[in-house]
Amino acid sequence: MRFLLLSLALLLATALAPAHAQKALPGLSEGVQYTYIEDGQPYQTLPPGMVEVAEVFAYTCPHCAHFSPMLDAWGRQLPPHARLTLVPFVSGRDDAWARTFYAAQVAKALPVLHPRLFAAVHETGDLPRTASLEQITTFATRIPGVNGPAFQAALRDEPGQLARLRAAFEFERRSNVENTPTLIVGGRYMILGNSFEGLLANARRVVDALAPAKPAARVAPKPAPKPAAAKPAAARH
Predict the structure, then answer these.
(1) Global pTM?
(2) pLDDT average, residue stretch 101-122
Protein backbone atom coordinates (compact mmCIF):
# COMPACT_ATOMS: atom_id res chain seq x y z
CA MET A 1 0.00 0.00 0.00
CA ARG A 2 2.81 2.40 0.87
CA PHE A 3 4.48 1.63 -2.47
CA LEU A 4 1.19 2.30 -4.27
CA LEU A 5 0.70 5.69 -2.58
CA LEU A 6 4.31 6.65 -3.29
CA SER A 7 3.92 5.70 -6.96
CA LEU A 8 0.71 7.74 -7.19
CA ALA A 9 2.39 10.77 -5.62
CA LEU A 10 5.28 10.54 -8.04
CA LEU A 11 2.88 10.21 -10.97
CA LEU A 12 0.95 13.32 -9.91
CA ALA A 13 4.13 15.29 -9.36
CA THR A 14 5.33 14.37 -12.83
CA ALA A 15 2.01 15.35 -14.40
CA LEU A 16 1.91 18.72 -12.65
CA ALA A 17 5.56 19.63 -13.09
CA PRO A 18 5.42 20.88 -16.71
CA ALA A 19 2.55 23.33 -16.06
CA HIS A 20 4.30 24.70 -12.97
CA ALA A 21 7.66 24.93 -14.70
CA GLN A 22 6.14 26.85 -17.60
CA LYS A 23 5.16 29.70 -15.26
CA ALA A 24 8.73 30.98 -15.64
CA LEU A 25 9.85 31.49 -19.21
CA PRO A 26 13.54 31.62 -20.14
CA GLY A 27 14.82 35.18 -20.53
CA LEU A 28 11.47 36.72 -19.48
CA SER A 29 10.05 38.00 -16.18
CA GLU A 30 6.52 37.68 -14.85
CA GLY A 31 5.17 41.15 -14.19
CA VAL A 32 7.33 42.67 -16.93
CA GLN A 33 6.45 40.92 -20.20
CA TYR A 34 3.41 38.97 -18.97
CA THR A 35 1.10 38.07 -16.12
CA TYR A 36 0.67 34.36 -15.48
CA ILE A 37 -2.94 33.12 -15.44
CA GLU A 38 -3.37 30.36 -12.88
CA ASP A 39 -5.39 27.44 -14.28
CA GLY A 40 -5.63 29.26 -17.61
CA GLN A 41 -6.61 27.42 -20.77
CA PRO A 42 -6.53 28.41 -24.44
CA TYR A 43 -9.69 29.59 -26.14
CA GLN A 44 -9.42 26.85 -28.75
CA THR A 45 -7.79 23.45 -28.82
CA LEU A 46 -4.82 23.40 -31.18
CA PRO A 47 -2.64 20.53 -32.40
CA PRO A 48 0.26 19.55 -30.10
CA GLY A 49 3.14 22.00 -30.32
CA MET A 50 0.94 24.89 -31.53
CA VAL A 51 0.60 28.09 -29.49
CA GLU A 52 -2.53 30.25 -29.55
CA VAL A 53 -2.29 34.04 -29.52
CA ALA A 54 -5.79 35.23 -28.62
CA GLU A 55 -6.83 38.86 -28.88
CA VAL A 56 -9.90 39.86 -26.90
CA PHE A 57 -11.31 42.95 -28.61
CA ALA A 58 -14.47 45.03 -28.94
CA TYR A 59 -15.69 46.82 -32.05
CA THR A 60 -16.75 49.77 -29.88
CA CYS A 61 -13.22 50.15 -28.44
CA PRO A 62 -11.18 52.94 -30.14
CA HIS A 63 -7.93 51.37 -28.97
CA CYS A 64 -8.91 48.08 -30.62
CA ALA A 65 -9.67 49.94 -33.85
CA HIS A 66 -6.22 51.50 -33.86
CA PHE A 67 -4.54 48.24 -32.85
CA SER A 68 -6.32 46.00 -35.37
CA PRO A 69 -4.20 46.70 -38.50
CA MET A 70 -1.01 46.51 -36.45
CA LEU A 71 -2.04 43.15 -35.04
CA ASP A 72 -3.01 41.87 -38.48
CA ALA A 73 0.42 42.71 -39.92
CA TRP A 74 2.14 41.25 -36.85
CA GLY A 75 0.11 38.05 -37.07
CA ARG A 76 1.29 37.42 -40.62
CA GLN A 77 4.87 37.28 -39.31
CA LEU A 78 4.23 34.65 -36.64
CA PRO A 79 6.36 31.49 -36.70
CA PRO A 80 4.73 28.23 -37.86
CA HIS A 81 4.06 27.04 -34.30
CA ALA A 82 1.79 30.04 -33.45
CA ARG A 83 -1.70 31.01 -34.56
CA LEU A 84 -3.55 34.32 -34.08
CA THR A 85 -7.18 34.02 -32.95
CA LEU A 86 -9.67 36.86 -32.54
CA VAL A 87 -12.13 36.67 -29.64
CA PRO A 88 -14.90 39.29 -29.32
CA PHE A 89 -15.59 40.60 -25.84
CA VAL A 90 -18.97 39.20 -24.77
CA SER A 91 -21.12 41.21 -22.38
CA GLY A 92 -24.06 38.81 -22.54
CA ARG A 93 -26.04 36.47 -24.77
CA ASP A 94 -27.61 39.40 -26.64
CA ASP A 95 -24.32 41.19 -27.39
CA ALA A 96 -25.00 42.46 -30.93
CA TRP A 97 -21.33 43.04 -31.81
CA ALA A 98 -20.20 39.59 -30.69
CA ARG A 99 -23.09 37.96 -32.54
CA THR A 100 -22.12 39.90 -35.66
CA PHE A 101 -18.53 38.69 -35.38
CA TYR A 102 -19.55 35.02 -35.18
CA ALA A 103 -22.10 35.33 -37.98
CA ALA A 104 -19.42 36.87 -40.19
CA GLN A 105 -16.98 34.12 -39.21
CA VAL A 106 -19.43 31.35 -40.11
CA ALA A 107 -20.39 33.12 -43.37
CA LYS A 108 -16.67 33.49 -44.24
CA ALA A 109 -17.15 37.26 -44.43
CA LEU A 110 -14.84 38.19 -41.56
CA PRO A 111 -11.84 39.31 -43.68
CA VAL A 112 -14.10 41.83 -45.44
CA LEU A 113 -16.38 42.83 -42.57
CA HIS A 114 -13.94 43.02 -39.64
CA PRO A 115 -12.10 46.22 -40.72
CA ARG A 116 -15.30 47.76 -42.09
CA LEU A 117 -17.04 47.48 -38.71
CA PHE A 118 -14.19 49.28 -36.97
CA ALA A 119 -14.27 52.01 -39.63
CA ALA A 120 -18.05 52.37 -39.44
CA VAL A 121 -17.92 53.04 -35.69
CA HIS A 122 -14.71 55.06 -35.36
CA GLU A 123 -14.16 56.75 -38.74
CA THR A 124 -17.26 57.21 -40.88
CA GLY A 125 -19.91 57.21 -38.14
CA ASP A 126 -22.13 54.84 -40.14
CA LEU A 127 -22.79 52.85 -36.97
CA PRO A 128 -23.13 54.16 -33.39
CA ARG A 129 -21.53 52.24 -30.52
CA THR A 130 -25.04 51.42 -29.31
CA ALA A 131 -26.14 50.02 -32.70
CA SER A 132 -28.76 47.30 -32.60
CA LEU A 133 -28.31 43.95 -34.27
CA GLU A 134 -30.79 45.04 -36.95
CA GLN A 135 -28.77 48.17 -37.70
CA ILE A 136 -25.53 46.23 -37.91
CA THR A 137 -27.11 43.56 -40.12
CA THR A 138 -28.46 46.17 -42.56
CA PHE A 139 -25.00 47.74 -42.77
CA ALA A 140 -23.14 44.42 -43.08
CA THR A 141 -25.30 42.88 -45.79
CA ARG A 142 -24.78 45.92 -48.06
CA ILE A 143 -21.00 45.51 -48.11
CA PRO A 144 -19.64 43.95 -51.33
CA GLY A 145 -18.12 40.57 -50.59
CA VAL A 146 -20.54 39.71 -47.78
CA ASN A 147 -22.94 36.89 -48.60
CA GLY A 148 -26.12 38.34 -47.14
CA PRO A 149 -28.20 35.14 -46.98
CA ALA A 150 -25.32 33.18 -45.43
CA PHE A 151 -24.70 35.96 -42.89
CA GLN A 152 -28.36 36.15 -41.88
CA ALA A 153 -28.61 32.34 -41.67
CA ALA A 154 -25.66 32.32 -39.28
CA LEU A 155 -27.36 34.97 -37.16
CA ARG A 156 -30.50 32.85 -36.94
CA ASP A 157 -28.55 29.76 -35.85
CA GLU A 158 -29.30 30.27 -32.15
CA PRO A 159 -27.66 27.06 -30.84
CA GLY A 160 -24.49 27.80 -32.78
CA GLN A 161 -24.45 31.43 -31.68
CA LEU A 162 -24.95 30.57 -28.02
CA ALA A 163 -22.22 27.93 -28.08
CA ARG A 164 -19.70 30.40 -29.50
CA LEU A 165 -20.76 33.21 -27.18
CA ARG A 166 -20.47 30.90 -24.18
CA ALA A 167 -17.00 29.71 -25.20
CA ALA A 168 -15.76 33.30 -25.55
CA PHE A 169 -17.40 34.42 -22.30
CA GLU A 170 -15.90 31.54 -20.33
CA PHE A 171 -12.45 32.14 -21.82
CA GLU A 172 -12.58 35.82 -20.89
CA ARG A 173 -13.83 35.07 -17.38
CA ARG A 174 -11.20 32.45 -16.52
CA SER A 175 -8.50 34.68 -18.06
CA ASN A 176 -9.60 37.66 -15.91
CA VAL A 177 -9.96 39.93 -18.93
CA GLU A 178 -10.87 43.45 -17.80
CA ASN A 179 -9.83 45.62 -20.75
CA THR A 180 -9.60 45.54 -24.53
CA PRO A 181 -7.47 44.91 -26.43
CA THR A 182 -5.95 42.06 -24.42
CA LEU A 183 -3.48 39.50 -25.75
CA ILE A 184 -3.29 36.06 -24.16
CA VAL A 185 -0.69 33.56 -25.34
CA GLY A 186 -1.16 29.86 -24.78
CA GLY A 187 -4.12 30.49 -22.49
CA ARG A 188 -1.78 31.26 -19.57
CA TYR A 189 0.18 34.41 -20.40
CA MET A 190 -1.57 37.78 -20.41
CA ILE A 191 0.79 40.10 -22.25
CA LEU A 192 1.93 43.40 -20.74
CA GLY A 193 3.23 46.48 -22.54
CA ASN A 194 3.36 50.26 -22.28
CA SER A 195 2.45 50.71 -25.93
CA PHE A 196 0.97 48.72 -28.78
CA GLU A 197 4.47 48.16 -30.13
CA GLY A 198 5.63 46.97 -26.72
CA LEU A 199 2.62 44.70 -26.40
CA LEU A 200 3.39 43.01 -29.71
CA ALA A 201 7.11 42.74 -28.96
CA ASN A 202 6.42 41.05 -25.61
CA ALA A 203 3.85 38.74 -27.18
CA ARG A 204 6.45 37.62 -29.72
CA ARG A 205 8.97 37.00 -26.92
CA VAL A 206 6.48 34.74 -25.15
CA VAL A 207 5.60 32.96 -28.41
CA ASP A 208 9.28 32.31 -29.07
CA ALA A 209 9.83 31.08 -25.51
CA LEU A 210 7.02 28.54 -26.00
CA ALA A 211 8.41 27.18 -29.25
CA PRO A 212 8.73 23.39 -29.33
CA ALA A 213 12.19 22.15 -28.48
CA LYS A 214 14.21 21.28 -31.52
CA PRO A 215 15.57 17.72 -31.63
CA ALA A 216 19.28 17.51 -31.04
CA ALA A 217 21.23 17.31 -34.26
CA ARG A 218 22.68 13.90 -34.93
CA VAL A 219 26.43 13.87 -35.17
CA ALA A 220 27.75 11.43 -37.74
CA PRO A 221 30.34 9.10 -36.22
CA LYS A 222 33.86 9.78 -37.33
CA PRO A 223 35.27 7.10 -39.63
CA ALA A 224 37.77 4.80 -37.99
CA PRO A 225 41.36 5.68 -38.91
CA LYS A 226 42.88 3.48 -41.58
CA PRO A 227 45.67 1.23 -40.34
CA ALA A 228 49.11 2.50 -41.27
CA ALA A 229 50.76 0.67 -44.14
CA ALA A 230 53.55 -1.67 -43.01
CA LYS A 231 57.02 -0.37 -43.81
CA PRO A 232 59.20 -2.76 -45.90
CA ALA A 233 61.94 -4.41 -43.90
CA ALA A 234 65.42 -2.92 -44.41
CA ALA A 235 67.64 -5.03 -46.67
CA ARG A 236 70.48 -6.86 -44.86
CA HIS A 237 73.94 -6.85 -46.44
Answers:
(1) 0.81
(2) 98
